[in-house]
Automatic annotation (TrEMBL):
Pfam families hit by this protein: Fer4_16, QueG_DUF1730
Xref: HAMAP family: QueG
Keywords, sorted A to Z: 4Fe-4S, Cobalamin, Cobalt, Cytoplasm, Iron, Iron-sulfur, Metal-binding, Oxidoreductase, Queuosine biosynthesis, tRNA processing
Organism encoding this protein: Salmonirosea aquatica
Official protein name in the record: Epoxyqueuosine reductase
Entry-linked SUPFAM superfamilies: alpha-helical ferredoxin
Compartments, record wording: Cytoplasm
PANTHER family assigned to the protein according to its UniProt record, in alphabetical order: EPOXYQUEUOSINE REDUCTASE
Domain 4Fe-4S ferredoxin-type as annotated: residue spans: 184-211
Reaction(s) this enzyme catalyzes, per UniProt: epoxyqueuosine(34) in tRNA + AH2 = queuosine(34) in tRNA + A + H2O
BP GO annotations: tRNA queuosine(34) biosynthetic process
């Protein structure tokens, strides 16, 4: 091992140790380079219009595949995972309106971004003059791909990242740095012959293992779609009014999920006490109060009412 290799390994270890201290559950590193294998997959996915009305997913195709086009001098991608699996859950009976578990607490974009900025500050203080950018769903970065390349898990048949120790209920973020670091190796795919996620999807959004038609996903209909929900999916939502966790809930790997330790993601008392009639009669004032720091704010009151009315 050369002196440069030793330095890169030492720096990678320092960054992972600090990431753990900041509350991240896992941290891995990959080289910032062109995603050669992903290019044809992404092109095919877009050509099938699986992005639906999410036109932004077709933008910046070259940047999505090469972090060096996002940041000059990029050398490494540091990927982190932050668990959001809740200890307390909303009722999920057949008659209850359901909310994706990632939306129980505060908007993860801000929580994760703040932690990543703290990690970058540490790197700049402890290692030296390092330039970097933090990303949390805010730019054309293929976070699941980078996390998989960094050895944090594999992309499962439902296209979520799966970690053998913790399942898939976590948020992903990245730091792109102009710093050479010892990269981690990808792990194997442990989905095996299991097709539970494929079989369980009520709208058949998983068209084949490892391919999701985003325009058929309940999360797409209840969050991304801004117009009327198509009648052909009426009766298929199983009462999900914001997001959907079905493919994750049925995944055997999520038996290893453990409650998170991030207070910002805790279920708020106001949300915990919501009944079906509360959801149906929600006012602008109540919506703003309960969801002022929540991802649910994205739908606006009109969108949430549309979703409730659609599954009612």
């Amino acid at each position: 091992m050369t002196t440069d290799d030793l330095i890169q390994t030492e720096r990678a270890t320092l960054i992972k140790t600090k990431a753990k201290a900041l509350g991240f559950d896992f941290c891995g590193i990959s080289r910032a380079e062109f995603l050669e294998e992903e290019a044809p997959r992404l092109e095919t996915w877009l050509n099938h219009n699986y992005n639906g009305k999410m036109a932004w997913m077709a933008n910046h195709f070259d940047k999505r595949l090469d972090p060096r086009k996002l940041m000059d001098g990029a050398r490494s991608v540091v990927s982190v995972l932050l668990n959001y699996y809740p200890e307390e859950r909303l009722p999920e009976g057949s008659d209850d309106y359901k909310l994706s578990k990632y939306a129980y607490g505060q908007d993860y974009h801000f929580v994760l971004k703040d932690k990543l900025k703290d990690l970058l500050t540490y790197i700049q203080t402890d290692i030296g003059e390092v330039h970097g950018r933090a990303f949390v769903d805010s730019a054309p970065v293929m976070d699941k791909v980078w996390a998989a390349r960094s050895g944090l898990g594999w992309v499962g048949k439902h296209t979520n990242l799966l970690n053998r120790d913790m399942g898939s209920f976590f948020f992903i973020g990245e730091l792109i740095l102009d710093l050479d670091l010892a990269p981690d190796s990808p792990v194997a795919d442990y989905c095996g012959t299991c097709t539970r996620c494929v079989d369980a999807c009520p709208t058949d959004a998983i068209t084949e293992p490892y391919v999701v038609d985003g325009s058929k996903c309940i999360s797409y209909f209840t969050i991304e779609l801004k117009e009327a929900i198509p009648q052909e999916v009426k009766g298929k939502f199983e009462n999900w009014i914001f997001g959907c966790d079905i493919c994750q809930d049925v995944c055997p790997w999520n038996r290893f999920s453990r409650p998170h330790h991030t207070p910002e993601f805790n279920l708020s008392p106001e949300l915990q006490g919501m009944t079906n009639s509360d959801w149906e009669e929600i006012t602008e004032e109540v919506f703003k109060e309960i969801f002022r720091r929540s991802p649910v704010k994205r739908t606006k009151l009109e969108g949430l009412k549309r979703n409730v009315g659609f599954v009612k």
